[in-house]
Amino acid sequence: MSNTALIVGATGIVGQNLAARLLAEGWVVYGLARRPREGVDGVLPIAADLLDVEALRVALSGLRPSHVYFCSWMRQATEAENCRVNSAMVRNLFAALPEPAQVRHAALTTGLKHYLGPFESYASGAPPQTPFREEMPRLPVANFYYEQEDALFEAAARHGFSWSVHRPHTIIGHAVGNLMNMGSTLAVYASICRETGRPFVFPGSPQQWDGLSDVTDARQLARQLHWAGTSPAARNQDFNIVNGDLIRWKWLWPQLAAWFGIEAAPYPGSPTSLEAVLANDGPVWAEIAGRHGLRETDLGRLASPWHTDADLGRPVECVTDMSKSRRAGFLSYQYTPDSFFDLFARLRAERLIP
User: Fold this and answer.
1) Is 277 a residue whose pLDDT tops 90?
2) Any idea where the PRISE-like Rossmann-fold domain is (predicted)?
3) Domain identity same for 92 and 196
């Protein structure tokens, strides 16, 4: 059977890498976004607001996808609003599809806040037991990931398609304008340090500096999403997804520094807010971009230091178990330093960093 994918959030870090993967596999790919912009060649754009059901119905009127990939969210001021808005987006999508019963599989991408809690209570309270495993119960707090899952489960039961849920750790990959992009943020930070002579200081917590951790290459996530959409063993399952190796930031940080030709500064022993460090660097980046002929002069389009602070500032160890998907047949692996180096090389080739 032919495969036609609808990717919701097609311009984001997950959506762009997934689209590239599916197109390489010969799929027809539609990409839905509020404001479709430059992304992956070959994606058929659909402009729509997931909170406007009637306009969404019009935008999707001619579309009958075999697979739906939901890779989008909208950040709100409170978790209660996150729950309301982001679950509505999932429900509205399936309500607006002209023939949802023709969907064979739908996948939702969430993340490790499933285990760590939402931003309002992020990694607070008693430290969660590691490694994170899919069978761990939901936390007794409001969490928009849980609401999105429930909306997906309801739609799957109503229309008869299979589902999968994918929980990456910090995603490393290419996407300009993404709200949660550690890889590009660190590339910008290192570039500013090199250009200005500032020290390249690890901004996170002692637990993150010394402890074990992992990350998720966006290409690795795309591989699992593709696998889950085509493998019977993945139907109606939730899966963690990380690269498959383990890191300590005190081991990786000097390697990132070396790629940019700078020295890693000694770790100061406590967190240093990267958001505060970069707060006034808009003009600095614009000057660097102008001097090197870079394509993007807006620091905010490349860096999301608030999110990097949240991830690297966690006072707990973060290690993710991949046994469930491996036992089901997903055996892909990605070497973590290469996740960063490949991204840095692409950013430089596309004249986004000097």
Assistant:
1) yes
2) 66-354
3) no
